[in-house]
Amino acid sequence: MTHLDLLTFARGSALNWALIIFVIGIVLRLFEIFGLSRKADLATPRTHSPGSGWRTMLARSIPPPGMLKRDPVTYIGGYVFHLGLLFAIFFFAPHIEFFRSMTGLHWPNLPTALVDASVVAAMVALGMLLAHRLNNPVKRMLSGFGDYLAWTVTLLPLLTGYMAYHHLLFEYTLMLSLHLFSVELLLVVLPFSKLFHTFSVFISRWYNGDIFGRKGVAS
Amino acid sequence: MSATLAKGINSFKEVIDAPIASFFSSCVHCGLCAEACLFYTETGDAEYTPIHKLEPLRRVWQQEYTLLGKLGKMLGLSKPVTDAELAAWEPLVYDSCTLCGRCAMVCPVGNDMTYMIRKMREGMAASGHAPEDLVGATMRSITIGSPMGIKWPAVLAQIKHVQAETGITVPVDSPGAEYLVLMSSMEIINFPEYLSALSRIFKQAGVTWTLAQDAFEATNSGIQIGASDLAREIVSRIVVAAERLQVKCVISPECGHAFTALRWEGPNLMGRPFGFEVKHILEVLDELHAAGKIKTKGQDARPLTYHDPCQIARRGGVVEQPRRLLNAVAVDFREMPDAGVMNWCCGGGGGVSANSRAEPLRLEVFKHKKAQIEAVEVQTLITACANCRIVMEEGLEHYHMKVEVVGLTELVAQYLVEDKTT
Predict the structure, then answer these.
(1) Which chain A residue's Cα is nearest to B35?
(2) Whether B268 and A42 lie within 8 Å, measured CB to CB
(3) Could you tell me which residues come within 8 angstroms of residue A200 by beta carbon, excluding any fewer than 6 positions away?
(4) Chain A residues with CB-CB distance to B36 below 8 A
(5) Quick check: A38 and B18 CB within 8 A?
(6) Which of A33, A42, A65 sits opposite B272 (nearest CB)?
(7) Which of A180, B33, B37, B388 is the most interior residue, by most CB within 10 Å?
(8) Is A8 on the interface with B (CB under 8 A)?
(9) Is there a contact between B31 and A197 if contact means CB atoms under 8 Å apart?
(10) Which residues contact B137 (CB under 8 A, 6 or more apart)?
(11) In chain B, what residues touch A192 (CB-CB under 8 Å)?
(12) Which of A29, A44, A216 sits opposite B273 (nearest CB)?
């Protein structure tokens, strides 16, 4: 199998299967949550604020007063990583081109140098967050195999993408294949790991905002 | 023993709903909840991380309600929750969680750990892993009518005392009154000034009110221990009395969890909405004050601060009312750091103060409240929960702090304009 064959496989059936597992996994996990439903709250809400869940969905992205100081590594590392990842996935010109080839949708890209820098920043942040996880007694106690697996499968697409773009280590076609395989690994792992928070965070934040909102508290 | 463990696990399965599934699905193990919990911040012990306190419940969720978990269980790869494990978790679930809800305000993915601990306690109680003192308090509530074993004659004695002191008749079982007034055991035993203050305020406001002989106790150990069937029985006494007397509104006293039990859990425990309103006394006082039905004269010159009881503010939405009342009666009202919905718990809520085993830990974590009070340099601390009040009085004494704790209702009554002729 030549490098080109490998790339064809990575862009073809491997990607298709990964996407199928990803979509089925997400639907299944969402069903696992919503299938449990919840009892209607019979207590009269203090305020009729149907928007409180939606507000918390956004507002919870901001650290509550005093919290940034208590754990700056988690907050700053978290912001840098998530923004870097967002820029890399959705605003890198070749990625937009890739999405266009698949869906027909496209949007403006960010300058490549900026995306490149954000990927480096995201990888540095991931490194810092791992060190923090290993050193902080609370995080270390909470962490298990799933946490380190999630960390690894998140780092790999960033690392292989960076290496492919800069023509490092392997020949470009091979590196690009490895990049695609790492993305496919991420797609397969995501629904069945804590990385599912990519989707469920909006649900849990909504419930939080709704529970507090009914009592008249903006959370 | 396996029968009770089975009951506990079944109870876990029953309480897991869509919000809980979303919370466990979203947790990224960031540990930020620990930074919001005074049991962690004051001890540095990672065991007190809020989400960790829920680990047995999380495993039941994973093994019963996720595909991967079910597969793991079928293949014998998952670790079942054991009786010994629940026993080990008992102090985490009861002694080191006051259900204060501060962690739920900071979790980046929006997990409401308090919502989950409250529900997890149902399984802990069903499996026989609730603290002995809470079991005793709940049993006394069921058999005697009050967690502290208080019976009507004790209330009657206080009524006589208040009537003699104020010259105002305290109405009992008066049908058609606007308000049904409840009290907490703590107020009956330790703070008789509450009833006295209310008598004067209501007389001045010209509103009708009553006590009920068969429903004077507002507290509800059932929701603290996590026994909804018992909580329902306790709450139903109030509901039955309120409906019999046809009151418009039931007033929850200066007690945090009593408000949660009646206002938020009550209709859900009873399985129907109430035909009357439920208000915390501070809401009623604020309304009467705003409507001009009660007026105050003069202001307290002492520098003072206000401790927001968790169940009244963060979990109850009564935040502005005490501030409006305080600003009316105090010249030098100072806000503690993190006041309002982000306030720190006194350390004794959620049944912790009724659990003697937790006392050393409760006094240790009181250091946070101590620091908050020291930051505003006051000798007068106002609050609106009799449980917070007694917990803080004990903490202040333990740390040799000369700070007086006063109930807000009592403070308002102190500056009440009273027309003695009416």
Answers:
(1) A70
(2) yes
(3) A29, A33, B22, B25, B26, B109
(4) 67
(5) yes
(6) A42
(7) B388
(8) no
(9) no
(10) B147, B148, B221, B224, B225, B351, B354
(11) 68
(12) A44
Asked whether residue A208 is assigned to any structural domain, the reply reads: yes
Total number of domains in chain A = 1
Compare all CA atoms of chain A with the CA of B260 and give the residue at the minimum distance: A215
- Rounded CA gap, A182 and A177, in Å? 9
**Which amino acid does the sequence have at B358?**
A
Residues of chain B with CATH 1.10.1060: 2-130
Would you call A211 and B115 a contact, using CB atoms and an 8 Å cutoff? Answer: yes
A208 to chain B: closest CA residue: B110
User: Are residues B27 and A194, on separate chains, in Cβ contact within 8 Å?
Assistant: yes
Chain B residues in contact with A216 by the CB 8 A cut-off are: 316-317
Assigned domain for A72 exists = no
Domain presence at residue A204: yes
Instruction: Provide the H-helix boundaries in B76-174.
Output: 83-90, 102-106, 113-126, 132-143, 152-166
| CATH 3.40.50 location in chain B | 294-414
pLDDT tens-digit map of A27-76: 999 999 999 999 999 999 998 777 899 999 999 999 999 999 999 999 99
Domain B294-414: top CATH class:
alpha beta
Q: Which of A75, A126, A204, A219 to mutate against chain B (most B CBs within 10 Å)?
A: A204
The ipTM estimated for the assembled molecules is: 0.96
Q: Specify whether the CB–CB gap between B9 and B60 falls below 8 A.
A: yes
In a domain, A132, yes or no: no
Residue to test with chain B: of A52, A76, A129, A217, most B Cβ within 10 A: A217
Domain that holds residue A20: 1-65+172-219
H helical segments located in A60-171: 67-70, 72-91, 93-103, 112-135, 137-142, 145-165
Number of CB pairs < 8 Å for A and B? 166
- Length of chain A measured in residues: 219
CATH number of B2-130: 1.10.1060
Helix (H) or strand (E) holding B410: helix B408-414
Compute the half-sphere exposure of residue B382: CA atoms within 13 Å on the CB side of its CA: 24
